[in-house]
Design brief:
It is a single chain. The N and C termini lie far apart (47 Å). Strand 13, helix 10 and strand 14 (297-300) form a beta-alpha-beta unit. Residues 544-552 have low confidence and may be disordered. The protein is of the alpha/beta class. The longest helix is centred in the middle third of the chain and has 29 residues, at 240-268. It is globular and about 60 Å long. The strands form 6 sheets. Strands 15-24-23-16-17-22-18-21 form an 8-stranded mixed β-sheet, sandwiched between helices. A 5-stranded mixed β-sheet has the order 3-2-1-4-5, with helices on both faces. A 5-stranded mixed β-sheet has the order 8-7-6-13-14, sandwiched between helices. The protein contains 18 helices and 24 strands. It folds into 3 domains: 3-95, Nucleotidyltransferase, domain 5 (2-Layer Sandwich), CATH 3.30.420; 143-300, Nucleotidyltransferase, domain 5 (2-Layer Sandwich); 336-551, DHBP synthase (Alpha-Beta Complex), CATH 3.90.870. Bound molecules: fe (ii) ion (FE2).
Length: 552
């Protein structure tokens, strides 16, 4: 047996993954253990968990997803394992994370992010267990930096805020694409930035993580403010001007993603594409690549951002083929007994139901307007909740977004919520039916269905959907089927189980979030906890400014 521990260390979203005999067996982000969002540094807790999960005291090899000369501290000192150590270039780890578990014998592979090991973009051809790098874009040119810089200008300064801009863009009109095209222009098959609009080339890109969550220094120069007007302060009003800049940024990013994908197709002439890197979390751009380039199949790594390099580095060192990542459930799981113990410790009573009763009850409560905390099986790897650590609600309700934000999520009102749809029904509701198991592709909602699902149909009539196959998550599939039986709608609204912090990992995390927020019904495995009074009373209490106590 060969066990390879993969690590994303000293980058945002520190993570660990374990590959045994060429197959992924465990993967998790450090933030879920440390409860510090996007935590960088060294993933000690996640690494220890991965090994314990496989019953190992040490691995045969460790694979770190960056070059040895880029590492700010010696990771050997953190772990002290007497084993082989490998350092896999950051973007090679991204490429490997997308291609090796894709199930494709050969494919074009594209990785794009801000930077890793001095590179922002790689184009490659994957064949068997090998990757041939065809092109790379080096510092200081970067689509990730472009997007983050304008995200900062828009008043969203935090690490990982780029997704907010993707959600904001459809509210605007892309009136400033000419301006945005001054920031980034084609260069052969690739692209280059006009550095006058940026600062990252003048001083080392500041990625500070001493305080926990990483923070990035200001990336744009005063010239960007001359071009677009003064930067928005984080708490200032969002105006139509900001929406139009967001729309223009998104449009220009999509142009460049499409150019890169098209160039990669010309070079490889392969019908399959694998995507990774932070830019590959831009589900709108991914949807367009699938629609508008000759690629017929696209595999996007669920942990497309840096956490996925833990998986990629380990698979690359294992030169692993034959393993296909069909789901994202690679994290810790808890038995009903462990869930019951967490409830008992908090003095909360629960009811145990068999799966049929459970799915019937939860579907009925979602139909009635309740917000449900749904905690099952193994925690997802990557930034999306996919039915194991999810908050579920009724996609048919116009007001559900505001209710969720007021009672649990506290997100910006413009951000969309996404649907989990039965895979076998998705083509009836969305214009594309290519599988989207990881919520990283945005499709247009069919015209005759839009008004039926206002809770998950975004302002531009799209949805960032998860297609749910029975074999990959039988209980979740059954729940959605039960909801369809009651309502005729084969999907539920699915958002991550958290209150703007790392997604819950343990039953105790879930219970704390339930108690702190106004989720109506908590499901921990087979156990159900109802908040006394249900939806109406909770809403009434909210109106009165009161707190609703969790009771059995
Ligand atoms: Fe990266």
């Amino acid at each position: 047996m060969a066990a390879i521990l993969g690590l994303n260390a000293y980058h945002g979203d520190a993570a660990a993954a374990l590959v045994v005999d060429g197959r992924l067996v465990a993967a998790a982000e450090e933030e879920r253990f440390s409860r510090v969002k996007h935590v960088a540094g060294f993933p000690s807790l996640a690494a220890a968990w991965c090994l314990a999960e496989a019953g190992l005291s040490s691995p045969d090899a460790v694979a770190v997803g960056c070059l040895e000369q880029s590492v700010p501290a010696d990771p050997r000192a953190e772990l002290g394992f007497d084993c082989e150590w490998h350092f896999v270039e950051h973007h090679v780890a991204h490429l490997a994370s997308a291609f090796l578990p894709s199930g494709f014998e050969d494919a074009a592979v594209l990785s794009a992010d801000a930077f890793g090991d001095g590179v922002s973009t790689m184009l490659a051809r994957g064949q068997g267990s090998s990757l041939e790098v065809l092109e790379r874009v080096a510092f200081p040119h970067s689509l990730g930096v472009l997007y983050t810089a304008v995200t900062q200008w828009l008043g969203f300064p935090r690490y990982g805020d780029e997704g907010k801009v993707m959600g904001l863009a459809p509210y605007g009109t892309p009136r400033f694409t000419d301006e945005l095209r001054r920031l980034v222009r084609p260069s052969g098959d690739l692209f280059e930035l006009d550095l006058e609009y940026f600062t990252h080339h003048q001083h080392p890109m500041e990625l500070a993580w001493a305080e926990g969550t990483p923070s990035v220094g200001r990336l744009f120069s005063p010239k960007l403010e001359e071009l677009l007007g003064p930067a928005r302060a984080p708490e200032a009003e969002l105006t139509a001007h900001h929406e139009d800049v967001a729309a223009s940024l998104q449009a220009v990013l999509e142009e460049h993603c499409l150019r890169l994908a098209q160039a990669l197709w010309e070079r490889t002439r392969l019908p399959r594409l694998c995507l990774a890197g932070g830019v590959a979390l831009n589900a709108v751009a991914n949807g367009r690549i699938l629609r508008e380039t000759p690629f017929r199949q696209v595999f996007v790594q669920p942990a497309a951002s840096d956490s996925g390099t833990a998986v990629g580095a380990a698979l690359q060192v294992a030169a692993a083929r034959g393993f296909t990542m069909e789901h994202a459930y690679w994290g810790p799981q808890y038995t009903d007994e462990e869930c019951a113990a967490a409830l008992a410790a908090a003095g909360i009573e629960s009811e145990r139901l068999d799966e049929k009763e459970l799915c019937a009850l939860v579907a009925e409560r979602i139909d009635a307007g309740d917000i449900v905390g749904w905690f099952q099986g193994r925690m997802e790897f990557g930034p999306r909740s996919l039915g194991d650590r999810s908050i579920l609600a009724d996609p048919r309700r116009h007001e559900i977004k505001d209710v969720l934000n007021a009672r649990v999520k506290h997100r910006e009102p413009f951000r969309p919520f996404a649907p989990s749809v039965l895979a076998e029904r998705s083509a009836e509701w969305f214009e594309q039916d290519h599988p989207s198991p990881f919520m990283v592709l945005v499709y247009r909602t069919r015209a005759d269905k839009r008004e039926l699902i206002p809770g998950v149909n975004h302002v531009d009539d799209t949805g960032r959907l998860q297609t749910v196959r029975r074999e990959m998550n039988p209980r979740y599939h059954r729940l959605i089927q039960e909801f369809e039986r009651r309502t005729g709608v084969p999907m539920v609204l699915n958002t991550s189980f958290d209150e703007n912090e790392p997604i819950v990992m343990t039953p105790a995390d879930a219970l704390e979030t339930f108690q702190r927020t106004r989720i109506d019904l908590l499901v921990l495995g087979s156990l159900v906890v109802r908040r006394s009074g249900g939806a109406e009373e909770a809403a009434e209490a909210a109106a009165l400014g009161g707190q609703v106590e969790a009771q059995g």
